[in-house]
Design goal:
Elements: H1 3-12, H2 23-33, H3 35-59, H4 69-89, H5 102-126, H6 134-161, H7 164-168, E1 173-178, H8 182-193, E2 199-205, E3 215-216, E4 219-223, H9 228-234, E5 239-242, H10 249-262, E6 266-268, H11 272-277, H12 290-293, H13 303-310, E7 314-318, H14 323-333, E8 339-344, H15 347-360, E9 366-370, H16 376-385, E10 390-393, H17 400-405, H18 407-428, E11 432-438, H19 447-461, E12 472-478, E13 480-482, H20 488-497, E14 502-504, E15 510-511, E16 513-515, H21 516-529, E17 534-538, E18 544-545, H22 546-556, E19 567-569, E20 588-591, E21 597-601, H23 607-620, H24 625-635, E22 645-647, E23 651-653, H25 665-668
Parallel strand pairs: 1-2, 1-5, 2-4, 5-6, 7-8, 7-10, 8-9, 10-11, 11-12, 12-17, 13-16, 14-19
Antiparallel strand pairs: 3-4, 15-18, 17-21, 20-21, 22-23
Helix pairs in contact: 3-4, 3-6, 4-5, 5-6, 9-10, 13-21, 14-21, 16-18, 18-19, 19-23, 20-22
Length: 680
Amino acid sequence: MSDEENAGQSADEGLMPGQSRGYVGVFMHTMHHHQNTLLHMLVCAGAVSAGVWIAYLLRFDLQIPPGWLPGAVYASVVCVAIQAPLLWLMGWRRVGWHGISLPDLAILARMVAAAAGTSSAVLLLARWEPVPRSVPILQGATLMAIAVLARLGVRLWRERQAGRLEASAVASKRVFLYGAGFAGQALSRALLRYPELGYLPVGFVDDNEALHGEIVHGLPVVTNGVGLCTAVERHSVGEILIAIPSASPETLRRLRTYCDQAGRPCKAVPGLAELLQRPERLTELRHLDMADLLGRSQISLDEEGIRRKLSGQVVMVTGAAGSIGSELCRQLVRFRPQRILALDVAETPLFELENEFRERYPCANMLPVIGDVRHERRLFALLVEHSVDVVFHAAAYKHVPMMERHVAMAIENNVLGTYALASAAEQAGVRDVVMISTDKAVRPSSVMGATKRLAEMVVKSRSGGAGGSGTRFVSVRFGNVLGSNGSVIPIFRRQIASGGPVTVTHPEMRRYFMTIPEASRLVLQAMAMGERDEIFVLDMGNPVRIDDLARNLIRLHGLRPGRDIAVEYTGPRPGEKLFEELYLHDEDLVRTVHEKIMVLQGPPLERDWVDERIRDLRALLLGDPEQLRAWMAEMIPDYAPVVTTGVPGGRERAGSGQADCPFPRKLLGGDNSMDALEWA
């Protein structure tokens, strides 16, 4: 084949079959390439022209006099010549074809007004043919109606073509949407458009009685929460979807009560903050959990102050594979530390944390390290090798009954481990060490609480006295965290999943709770605020009765406590108190600039005295556990192990070790009601 033939073949590539080279072929190829554009322009021109003729028909009561026909033709030509190009240039073809909305209507109205205004000026000023003054106004209104009806027709046609309207009629579950506001309306449209989600909305429930009887997006507003019981039976509704992303915890508790009374499970849309970041998550319905109902307010952080402390720094987290430690690692990422050393003795959880970081935070420099906080030499080598600036010490044995049986291990890990870390950090020149403590360290009744109190003493003594270094030591004390490893929530969930019973130690046992992310954020904030020789206390709100917690969790699973799932009382376990406290009476509680963080200023501790007592402790480790308990009692005068005695009905009561003051009213500064989670 010659070069000319090759060139001719190349020129023909891309042409439609049967097309020849030359001007005709090029023209046909261009027409095919722009056929969608031409189709849109023809549709636009047809809509404009139709608007003119409909306007004339309306003006003359559907019978146009012969004398006005030339003017109608003239107006039609002028409007098409002016409006069609203007509408095309303004993006008429891109608005609302995939589902018209109120913002789309506003955009179309502005386009039509601009185009109709321009053509009206030409028609009324040029006056080559007489045109009634009402025609341009009627033509603009008619064109707007045609545009809206066309888009609605296209939407209905597409949904019927996809079989979605038919599929909606056989959706797997009929639901009410609680909330007829913007979120509820958006959710109803999404559920009708995507029946594969498995929900068919049949109506709205709203507490605004002015809406009752109204039709919103084709669905009736049938009742309020009080009338929900009757409405779900009448409409054969199987589930309630709460579509109020800005609902407060109090509102969620009330709505949950209505759903429980109606005997129907409920789910909720994500919260407002989450929807603002990712609006597409509106249809990711979720079950309510205890964090939704606790009533914890959103925490504001001094982001800039934390960033100054952590940005570009090397940070080590001990116990990094645990609940608090792993969340600290996640929270640290957004402050851009140079490196995160995740230290833990547990291999498998650390491996899982590493995989999580690879998937979710690929840019974060997180180094997993297998290590034990009791090995001072290993810690010192790590701190020096990586030039660590900040250490968050979250590693500890924390299970109260378990530590009652393993006194030596609790002391070795919680006390001597903290001592080893503090010594290694000082020698390596670490700038900040933040130890995470617990409310069980206050007037401890358990081995675990006593060891954490001793760890606080070790940290407190490091900042003063002879031999003090430049390392800054602070402790952060808080209560229980919801959903942490070994906490009551996972245990209750497992018991509910297996059909019960749910076991509660005592009907009057109360604990402070906060969420894991909340606790981690406040630890970071305390680190940024701390000076030296301080114990920070986090505002835990009001303590919660564990019995209420268990019963509410049963309700969250759509079950009835005492009927579907039994609740049994087993009595307090060794070392457990009925009430926890957050500070001692000889500690001065001082407010800080952050509303959720207080600082305790107790008497100073001599470092030499603490070091000497630690040396004595090492000699006792292999001895009798009772000797270790006696040593702790000598170090902590208010250490009083709880003695439990049986009571009728399988219930237990606290013995002499129970605190006199169940909770610090000075700290709470308000209503101490324990029924914050109790539903009607």
